[in-house]
Amino acid sequence: MSHTSDDTAIQADKDAFRAFLRDHNLPATPQRLAIADTVLGTDRHLSAEEVAQELKTRGASAGTATVYRTLEVLVRSGLVVERDFGEGFKRYEAARGVPHHEHLLCTVCGRVTEFRDERLERMTTLLAEAHDFSRQRHRLVIYGLCGECRRGSGRASR
Asked: Which of 24, 58, 25 lies closest to 39 in space, CA to CA?
């Protein structure tokens, strides 16, 4: 996928967020738009704390409560998906028509890697049917160490 189509999709999401705010009589404050830019403009799974940190890096800032409230609005808009990997906090990723996918979560540096495997999709359906169960959806998170942390070169060693 070229950067141009990525940029177009990101801009479309930003425009959709502005429209969502307008349709729900919510002000499009600079903080809200900066938070939306941060989450919609990355393919990472950011925590609220990481969003706030990224804003500071960009020379913008927003209070913690504003970050959390804006993330809730982004989730309600359908543009962002909330993920709970059992870390004691939630992470957020742009929805952008992402097909169903699973996650690998490094328990040292927190890196999240997405993957899809059709064999896994078929297996979950077969397992459900074997138990007389009609599968609607599933979620899989595999916890472990990413290659960098296993080799001692990840964020944890800094």
From this structure: 58
Q: Count of alpha carbons within 13 Å of 119, Cβ hemisphere only?
A: 0
pTM for this predicted structure: 0.65
- Contact predicate 21/28, CB 8 Å: yes
Cα 150 from Cα 158, distance rounded (Å): 14
Indicate the length of the chain as a whole number. 158
Query: pLDDT tens digit string along 108-147?
Result: 998 888 787 878 888 888 898 999 988 766 778 889 999 9
Residue at 149: amino acid letter: C
62 by Cβ neighbours in 10 Å (0-12 / 13-18 / 19+) ranks as buried
Cβ–Cβ under 8 Å, residues 88 and 126: no
Measured distance CA(44)–CA(83) in Å, rounded: 12
Taking only the tens place, the pLDDT of each residue in 105-118 is: 899 998 888 787 87
Q: In Å, how far are 22, 51, 103, 106 from 92, measured between CA atoms? A: 22, 9, 13, 16
Q: Which amino acid is at 38?
A: T
